[in-house]
């Protein structure tokens, strides 16, 4: 490949419309980036057929609307990771980075290698559409592969992100246990937190909630869901959040304790 060649990587079920292709061409002609990522929505097929799995992938859209596009537009680096689909690369990046790796997250490995070689990362302001895994087992296997690959990537930031991603559900479980011990065994009164910490936590929750609501609404509108069902989906969120957190934690624990190696193939 030469520097005049560009490769658009996609999964087998990825759908890119005319606007998406035009945006890729515009990025190639008008920007100085060497490789780039775009938004991925998971509403192309069987959308909301399984509420738990659909909800879990909507959280990935929050990542795209938030930290993924931020790292590309503001940092020019794939700090938090990339998707292997809707991933545009120049020929010189393909030649220099290569895909010669047995890492299970070969897309993240490729992106970090390209970064280390000095290539500039960017963002495609367009949407590709895919679908969620069909079963809970496939959902867990997909995430398990990610955790295994990130763990063996050998990058401190990647390892830190693995731990932080597991924090919400483990924090919930540990907090519940500590409160139960305090109230039932130690008979301790409720611990009051300082106002500044409460305000910080409230701000954090507000940002997280806003990001999720925005992602769900945009995702649903893109799929042609009516407003009545969008409201239903929003109201169901508090019920779905704990269960998707459990699925994420299960995939992480499986990646840590399951000795099986190799690439898990899932059905879509």
Summarize the structure.
One of its GO terms (cellular component) is cytoplasm. 60% of the residues lie in helices and 10% in strands. It has 268 residues and is an alpha+beta fold.
How would you explain this protein's 3D organization?
Helix content is 60%, strand content 10%. With 268 residues, the protein is an alpha+beta fold. It has a five-stranded mixed sheet with strand order 1-4-3-5-2.
Q: Which helices and strands occur, and which strands form pairs?
A:
Elements: E1 6-9, E2 15-16, H1 18-30, E3 35-41, H2 51-75, E4 87-90, H3 91-97, H4 106-116, E5 121-129, H5 136-151, H6 156-185, H7 195-222, H8 227-257
Parallel strand pairs: 3-5
Antiparallel strand pairs: 1-4, 2-5, 3-4
Helix pairs in contact: 2-7, 2-8, 5-8, 6-8, 7-8
Instruction: Assign the CATH class of the largest domain.
Output: Alpha Beta
What do we call the CATH topology of the largest domain? Spore Coat Polysaccharide Biosynthesis Protein SpsA, Chain A
Seen as an oligomer or otherwise, the chain set is single chain
CATH evolutionary superfamily of the largest domain: Spore Coat Polysaccharide Biosynthesis Protein SpsA, Chain A
Question: What is the count of β-strands?
Answer: 5
Biggest pleated sheet:
5 strands, mixed
Features:
Glyco_trans_2-like, globular, 268 residues, alpha+beta, Spore Coat Polysaccharide Biosynthesis Protein SpsA, Chain A, 8 helices
């Amino acid at each position: 490949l030469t520097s005049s060649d560009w490769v658009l990587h996609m999964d087998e079920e990825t759908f890119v419309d005319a606007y998406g292709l035009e945006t890729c061409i515009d990025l190639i002609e008008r920007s100085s980036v060497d490789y780039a990522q775009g938004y991925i929505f998971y509403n192309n097929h069987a959308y909301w057929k399984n509420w738990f799995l659909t909800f879990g992938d909507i959280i990935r859209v929050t990542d795209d609307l938030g930290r993924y596009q931020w790292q590309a537009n503001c940092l020019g680096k794939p700090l938090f990771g990339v998707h292997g689909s809707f991933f545009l690369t120049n020929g010189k990046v393909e030649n220099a980075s290569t895909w010669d790796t047995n890492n299970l997250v070969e897309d993240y490995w490729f992106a970090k290698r390209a970064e280390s070689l000095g290539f500039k990362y960017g963002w495609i302001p367009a949407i590709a559409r895919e679908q969620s895994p069909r079963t809970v087992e496939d959902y867990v296997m997909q995430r398990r592969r990610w955790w295994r690959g990130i763990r063996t990537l050998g990058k401190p930031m990647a390892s830190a992100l693995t731990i932080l991603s597991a924090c919400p559900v483990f924090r919930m479980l540990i907090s519940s246990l500590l409160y139960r011990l305090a109230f039932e065994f130690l008979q301790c009164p409720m611990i009051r937190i300082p106002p500044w910490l409460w305000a910080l936590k409230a701000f954090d929750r507000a940002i997280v909630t806003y990001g999720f609501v925005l992602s769900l609404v945009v995702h649903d509108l893109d799929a042609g869901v009516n407003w009545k069902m969008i409201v239903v989906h929003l109201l169901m969120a508090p019920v779905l959040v704990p269960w998707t957190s459990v699925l994420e934690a299960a995939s992480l624990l499986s990646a840590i304790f399951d000795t099986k190696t190799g690439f898990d193939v899932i059905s879509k």
